[in-house]
Design a protein that fits this description.
Strand content: 15-25%
Order of helices and strands: HEHEHEEHEHEHEEHEHH
CATH topology: Rossmann fold
Number of domains: 1
Number of helices: 9
Shape: globular
Length: 254
């Protein structure tokens, strides 16, 4: 019998959601801050601890998850006797879904407006045979537009958000908007992650603050939030993501 049960679209979606214990969304106010890198490694970290994890990339126009996990050429499989396909099984405990795996070419742009994006996100939740999960990690596009609004509304309840930003003061403007967005959508904020916090020279070990400012720290203080961690600029992180093998997968003891 198909895991996605129910006669109506609403029933099928609810059947999927009922098998997910916790739902977390990774968001940012602007692009290029490392949000997808954080989402991928959070998902892998939980999976390495024995949790069943799903990673859903809803960045319709700029999906990165498939590339970072090395599943760009993977296709969704239909199990015997099933009506709906399954997400890509990345490891024993990690399943992932990205629109990038559905496109004929990685160079193919997705020229969609809001209604089409909303429809695709609905299908990701409704018409995919997600297994029972301890966590569903959502990699959302930057900003506060259609995709993050749609996924939060469709999930009905989200356990928490992780907000990713870089240190410079100009990023404070976007970080604050993202915090307010999470609050307006009634999503508890787990904390902030400061990415690209500093650069450590691999040759001499000297630290250099390439991005000056205290934007993340100031936002955390103003809103009473925790900074969960500061991630330095590390060539190994960049190389691992580009190679299709994420940092935590490549360096499991990190």
């Amino acid at each position: 019998m198909s895991k996605v049960q129910g006669n109506s679209e609403e029933e099928r979606m609810q059947a999927n959601l009922d098998r997910i214990k916790h739902k977390l969304i990774v968001i940012s106010g602007k692009g290029g801050v490392g949000k997808s890198t954080v989402a991928v490694n959070v998902a892998l970290g939980l999976a390495q601890k024995g949790k069943k994890v799903g990673l859903l990339d809803v960045d319709i126009h700029g999906p990165s998850v498939a590339k970072m996990l090395g599943i760009e050429k993977k296709t969704l499989m239909l199990a015997k006797g099933e009506q709906y396909p399954e997400p890509v099984k990345v490891t024993a405990n990690l399943y992932a879904l990205s629109i990038a795996t559905l496109m004929p070419s990685p160079d193919e742009p997705i020229v969609w407006r809001g209604p089409l994006k909303m429809g695709a996100i609905k299908q990701f939740l409704r018409d995919i045979n997600w297994p029972s999960l301890d966590y569903l990690i959502i990699d959302s596009p930057p900003g506060t537009g259609d995709e993050p609004i749609s996924i939060i509304q469709l999930l009905k309840s989200v356990d928490g958000s992780l907000i990713v930003s870089t240190p410079q003061d100009v990023a404070l403007l976007d970080a604050r908007k993202t915090i307010k967005f999470s609050q307006k959508m009634n999503v508890p904020i787990i904390g902030l992650i400061e990415n690209m916090s500093t650069f450590i020279c691999p040759h001499c070990g000297k630290k250099t603050d390439i991005f000056k400012g205290t934007g993340v720290k100031k936002a955390a203080e103003d809103f009473g939030l925790d900074i969960l961690g500061s991630v330095p600029i590390d060539a190994a992180i960049v190389e691992s993501g580009d190679s299709g093998k994420s940092y935590l997968e490549k360096f499991k003891n990190s």
